[in-house]
Amino acid sequence: QVQLVQSGAEVKKPGTSVNVSCKAFGYTFTNHYIHWVRQAPGQGLEWMGVIIPNGGSTTYTQKFQDRVTMTRDTSTNTVNLELSSLRSDDTAVYYCTRTVGSRFDIWGQGTMVTVSS
Amino acid sequence: QSALTQPPSASGSPGQSVTISCTGPSSDVGVYNYVSWFQQHPGKAPKLIIYEVTKRPSGVPDRFSGSKSGNTASLTVSGLQAEDEADYYCSSFVGGVTYVFGTGTKVTVL
Fold first, then answer.
1. A104/chain B closest Cα distance in angstroms
2. Fewest beta carbons within 10 Å, which of A52, A82, A83, B75?
3. Could you give phi then psi for residue A30, rounded to 5 degrees?
4. Tens digit of pLDDT for each residue in B81-103?
């Protein structure tokens, strides 16, 4: 079954970093881009960036340019999101999603990241 | 890149139609035919319901339709059903490998 499975919820203190993983099942991992999208409580969807599993190149939106790192491990079909220097307004659900062409066809279940002192 | 503009809310009675707009700069929605729409129920991941402006993924009812005019895309839900009550988001390709999402619209079935 084609699916993306994300790691579990995290609680972090301000100023620290968080890592969220996204493991792909049921398709050729290197054939499709993986994007990260976040959603703060009660707010809309926000595109953060993309990683191309075939080669590992990344593009981040300017807002997160200095704090985000996306990596991939082709041996485990996993993409990782690291967000550093966490602030309270980074509290959100983080989703990974795949594109086939231009369409975001499958999504992970989401990972809740809570930033609190 | 600023979010695409959607109305905060829309509503309709069962069986009626509701249309949601999604407006962006002429440099993305106006240029690319890569506008998608997503349905999101509370506590759930978004679900793709329209891509490339007008196309429906397999399994999405034909009650959902998309269109575009200039730099405004629209989603129409015809024959509203109770299960259509959800948040709806548009997105657009904006060049390179980057995308932007809309502000979201809460649809209420009266």
1. 7
2. A82
3. -80, 0
4. 999 999 999 999 998 899 999 99
